[in-house]
Design goal:
With 313 residues, this protein is α/β, with parallel strands linked by helices. The protein starts with 5 loop residues before the first strand and ends with a strand. A hairpin with a 3-residue loop joins β14 and β15. It has 8 helices and 18 strands. The strands form 3 sheets. An 8-stranded mixed beta sheet has the order 2-18-1-3-4-5-6-9. It has a single domain, classed as Ribonuclease Z/Hydroxyacylglutathione hydrolase-like (Metallo-beta-lactamase, Chain A), CATH 3.60.15.10. α2 crosses α4. It holds the Pfam family Lactamase_B. One of its GO terms (molecular function) is transferase activity. This is Dihydropteroate synthase. InterPro entries: DHPS-like_MBL-fold, Metallo-B-lactamas, Metallo-beta-lactamase_dom, RibonucZ/Hydroxyglut_hydro.
Length: 313
């Protein structure tokens, strides 16, 4: 895997805002001055996630929008507030076909304003359902269709395999869950395939892997459906390296029914892999953030909406 010279990462959408947080080396935040002197408004948070990436390699810059949050308003509002020009986006990547990751895509494409590649696994369009004793959600991803993406300005790239989309930036492709305790129990999680209702394996899930010169691998794992540890191991295998510098995203450990044992075992494996940067976001849950903060205090970085991080040697 090739390298890029630097990565600037902006958190466009996440579940949290905290105006009391201050800047730190390599991290710029939306803090009290921006909130109290909010001439242009303050950032908006929601149950979703979206990253804006800017990479450079050999003097050439690439901009990537990775996921689009839950709804159109926060993504567009936050981009304008943070001075991000979405018309400069070179590529869009959707991690999977769940609404908290694609919900703002049509508004984003309208802002981009030209036919831009949208990389997405073909199974993201598969009809999905949740059927449990207390809730039934029928076809909850019906807003995501290939036809609508094309009509909105997306050039859909249906992709199952890993693909280098810029120097030092690669999609993971399908991720095998290789750590036993990360195997999900898909209670009530169903999909419709070839006319049959079956358990939904979420095989469309993918991460982004960025290899920064002098830093190492940065893995963006927006929702952790394959398991964050399995995702890290998959990234190392693709890049043919034996370490990861950092991981940011949703670790899928904040849901009801996730045991404390699973949270603890996940952090055990993160500690064992010697990461220098760990940012549990979105669906990770407070227990996971607390566990990482307590057991990996030098690696833990709390991300909030509007945070800008620069990775470079």
């Amino acid at each position: 895997m090739r390298e890029c010279d630097e990565l600037t990462l902006t958190v466009l959408v996440d579940n949290y805002i905290d105006m009391l947080m201050s800047n730190s080396p390599g991290i710029t935040r939306q803090g009290m001055p921006e909130h109290f002197g909010a001439r242009n408004g303050t950032p908006l948070a929601e149950n979703g996630i979206s990253f804006f990436l800017e990479t450079s390699a050999g003097g050439r810059r690439t901009t990537i929008l990775f996921d689009a949050g839950m709804s159109p308003i926060p993504l567009v509002h936050n981009a304008r507030l943070l001075g991000i020009d979405l018309t400069k986006v070179d590529q869009v990547v959707l991690s999977h076909g769940h609404p908290d990751h694609f919900g703002g895509i049509y508004a984003a494409l309208a802002e981009i304003g030209y036919r831009v590649p949208v990389l997405v696994h073909p199974s993201a369009f598969t009809p999905r359902l949740i059927q449990r004793p207390d809730v039934t959600l029928q076809y909850f991803n019906k807003q995501l269709t290939e036809t609508d993406l094309v009509e909105a300005g997306g050039a859909v790239v249906a992709l199952k395999d890993p693909l280098e989309i810029a120097p030092g930036v690669m999609t993971s492709g399908e991720i095998p869950t290789t750590v036993d305790f990360e195997e999900e129990v898909p209670v009530g999680r169903m999909s419709v395939r070839d006319g049959h209702v079956c358990v939904d394996p979420i095989e469309d899930y993918q991460t982004l892997i960025v290899n920064v010169k002098g830093v190492g691998l940065i893995v963006l794992d927006p929702c952790g459906h394959a398991g964050v540890v399995s995702s890290l191991d998959h990234a190392m295998k693709l890049a043919e390296v034996d370490a990861v510098h950092g991981v940011l995203g949703g670790f899928h450990l904040g849901h009801a029914g996730i045991t404390q044992a699973k949270v603890d075992r996940t952090v055990d494996e993160l500690v064992a892999r010697g990461l220098s940067w760990v940012s549990p976001m979105h669906c990770s849950g407070f227990r996971t953030q607390r566990a990482v903060a307590e057991r990996m205090p030098d690696a833990f970085r709390l991300m909030t909406v509007g945070t800008v991080v620069r990775f470079a040697a």
